[in-house]
């Protein structure tokens, strides 16, 4: 009987590992293949929506799946997510124009919204608090492998097969996950929850998230339509106010606001969200910095972020021993402070800033994120009632998605404003020329004088982005400094 239970656990963990790899590698593979896809489908003007639509539907569906998993069980929701994701992947593979691709990416995102948070929830159900951190760390290896292998797999598929297989590859992986979960995952019969589903909450939350994501996608664009931004802001306010009113009266709310009455839960969610937002700064702007200023090829520039996933998965194995010895506050504060110290030189960096520092900073970033974000998941699950673990896991996943989306828009806005401000004193240089310099600086022939000015303009933009990053670190430190919890969570 014990051997049977162990084999079931092994099957489930393999399924979770493959599912995590399948959804996380999707981003890096599509990024690699995007230039080819855009070229084949003539979709340059719509390229940002290939990612934005996936992100949007993932964010909207995540809290809904989290709540449903607490009501009806993990297995049916997880199976549904895998089927929808696999179907969306197949449809993306047969898309013959950019509009169909964006539509089918939305279906993919709806599936991913179930897979990502439910993997955390299943781990919480199957393992005790003491063993859970090791299992979360083990599952992190799927993310680490996907971050390293994604560009290689994407490049190989595009070169040797064609871009359609970027999506088709998920179908057999999805079938394997389905078989393993259907055979291996046994759930206790749940008491049927006869409370009405919070339809008003789902609608108002979905409206809020859609408006929020669209708003920050728009803020990241170089050309801002202020009228449209104003309209979206009003719509966001309408849905957000409606959501809080509805949730206060709901019998079984989609997001139980009472969870946020627990200060520690709120702090863990905010910390994970803000750190995920900070993560965007080095993931996007390190490669741009290296390409534009150091004139290295895109493939070499992309390697600057690779120390992060490697150190993330290695560091996450230490979380279990740390949470047994220290309170969350005493773990987060020194780690975030050290991270901030490593980012401070970036706001003063000149053209000759040592290139190895980018790799070092990425490694320090990954180490900190591996410990703190894994701890955030662990603590958030532990301090809520068992019946709310699915909701808590989805809140943390949603918080991370929103953190990255919001900060992508804010960093983009800051970078664009800084570039435009610098250009005001150089009538002979256009924003278009700066864009060309950033994307292909190693091939653009310019006079030494203009080349020097370009370096200065881009560096000022980078300094502005990383000043915002330092501010983000300070906010995280303030939030955690005010944590009143003095007990080690057991």
| Class by SSE composition | mainly alpha
| Total of DSSP H or I helical runs spanning 4+ residues | 18
- The shape, in one word, is globular
Q: Helical amount among residues, as a percent range?
A: over 70%
- What is the radius of gyration computed over CA atoms, rounded to a whole number of angstroms? 23 Å
Q: What number of structural domains do the residues give? A: 3
Largest sheet: none
What is the subunit arrangement here?
Answer: single chain
CATH superfamily of the largest domain: MFS general substrate transporter like domains
Task: Tell me the span between the first and last alpha carbons.
Answer: 29 Å
Number of strands: 0
| Strand composition percent | under 5%
- Supply the CATH architecture of the largest domain: Up-down Bundle
What number is the mean pLDDT? 83
What is the CATH level 1 assignment of the largest domain?
Answer: Mainly Alpha
Task: Describe this protein with a few key phrases.
single chain; about 500 residues; mainly alpha; Growth Hormone, Chain: A; 3 domains; about 80% helix
